[in-house]
Amino acid sequence: MGLIKAIVNATGGVLADQWVDFFTCDAMPHEVLMRPGTRPQQGRSGNTKYSENIISNGSKINVADGQCMLIVENGRVADFCAEPGQYTYNNTVQPSLLGGGLKDLGPSFRQIGKRFTAGGAPTDQQKIYYINTKECIGNKIGWGNIPFRDSEFQMTVRVQGFGQYSFKITNPLLFYTNVAGNREGEYRRDDLTSQMKSEVISALQPALGRIAAQRVAYDMLINYPREIGAALNEEMSAEWSERRGIEIVSLAMESVTVDEQSAKKIEQLQEARALSNPVMAAGRLAAGQASAMETAAGNTGGAVGAFMGMGMAQNAGGMNAASLFQMGADAPQGGVPQPPQQPQPPQPPAAAPKFCPECGAKLSGPVKFCPECGMKM
Questions:
Q1: CA distance 153 to 348
Q2: What does the H/E/C string look like for the chain?
Q3: Cα 21 versus chain centre, distance
């Protein structure tokens, strides 16, 4: 029960009359994931008394780009083809299993497909289905309250955002068997995306954990769509790729922010970081003083008192903008002053060498007698 590549040398009604049956499928939009094959020329076919659920030997089957055709007998896949072209159905040969650009589907077929022997003939119901193998784009997703360990602030924040993802049916056999099933009409994207969206969001937390391990700040996540998509596939592989034959192709994050509580914590940390830098602190103090001076100058009744109060506040604090700017200038690059270096204690001078007053021999260390002349020291 296999497929043989057809060589077409004629067109129109004459060719149609030579065919037993002719199956085809129009181009499928992104919204359609599976569609039954149709007989568009059944009225001109030589088989005028065809059976709806039987594929006659010698029938022609068209396969277009972005499609995988499945021959199903009694609800189980008997043969498949994902190579574009026209084929002749032959029930006297083994399944051809023409995978085309798909990955090796042999193991899947052996697991779920019915095994046929040469010369076998259909016994019960046979149908043809076409699976859409093009990338299915434009699947919107939004998420919130996902914990993420931010590498810049060394704290856990709650990220939220929205974007779009795309997916692709990479194993039509698993998709038909475990998802779409044996149905009369189409299987549409809306039948799947609600469940898939929930599981994508569920897998997003551990996927972002993988990205956090690479020391990526939360506000840089938008620049890592491929890495996040790959991490999502790893998290979802057991349930979607290995069981349902579906993989995520890409993820586009259009916005990534943090919740209000996380934003306040980040603001406080940024404030503390700014004040720890003397140059930034000087700039902030100078701006505050300038604003205070403008306010004081506008107070005709107590401007002098206001200016005196400003001077007293500066003297009481022991620090002003000028001294902060000087600290920043004296500090190394980065504006953070280093603690003063402690002076090193003076080294004791080396002791002068001794000589014998009698013979002039050099003496080493404390001695009582000269080793040369024996003079008592």
A1: 50
A2: CEEEECCCCCCCHHHHHHCCCEEECCCCCCCEEEEECECCCHHHCCCCCCCCCCCCCCCEEEECCCEEEEEEECCEEEEEECCCEEEEEECCCCCCCECCCCCCCHHHHHHHCCCCCCCCCCCCCEEEEEEECCCEEEEEEEEEEEEEEECCCCEEEEEEEEEEEEEEECCHHHHHHHHHCCCCCCEECHHHHHHHHHHHHHHHHHHHHHHHCCCCCHHHHHHCHHHHHHHHHHHHHHHHHHHHCEEEEEEEEEEEEECHHHHHHHHHHHHHHHHCCHHHHHHHHHHHHHHHHHHHHCCCCCHHHHHHHHHHHHHHHCCCHHHHHHHHHHCCCCCCCCCCCCCCCCCCCCCCCEECCCCCCEECCCCCECCCCCCEC
A3: 47
Summary mean pLDDT of the chain: 76
Mean of the pLDDT values across residues 322-335?
Answer: 56
CA 176 – CA 18 distance, rounded (Å)? 32
- Give the total residue count for the chain: 377
Q: Which residues pair with 51 in a beta bridge?
A: none
Given a contact cutoff of 8 angstroms between Cβ atoms, the answer to whether 34 and 136 are in contact is: no
Tokens of 213: 């391990």
Question: What separation in angstroms does the CA of 281 have from each of 151, 226, 278, 289?
Answer: 25, 40, 5, 12
Contact 356/375 with Cβ under 8 angstroms?
A: yes
For residues 340 and 176, what is the distance between their CA atoms, to the nearest angstrom? 74
Quick one: CA dihedral 257, 258, 259, 261, positive or negative?
A: negative
pLDDT tens, residue by residue, 220-248: 888 888 888 888 888 888 888 889 999 99
The domain limits of the chain are: 2-132, 136-262
CA dihedral angle for residue 226, residue 231, residue 235, residue 241, rounded to 10 degrees: 40
pLDDT tens profile 254-284: 888 888 888 888 888 777 766 665 655 555 5
Identity of residue 13: G
- Residue (of 189, 100, 173) closest to 136 by Cα position: 189
The closest alpha carbon to 209, from 259, 158, 147, 255, belongs to 147
Report the CATH superfamily, name and number, of domain 136-262. Band 7 domain (3.30.479.30)
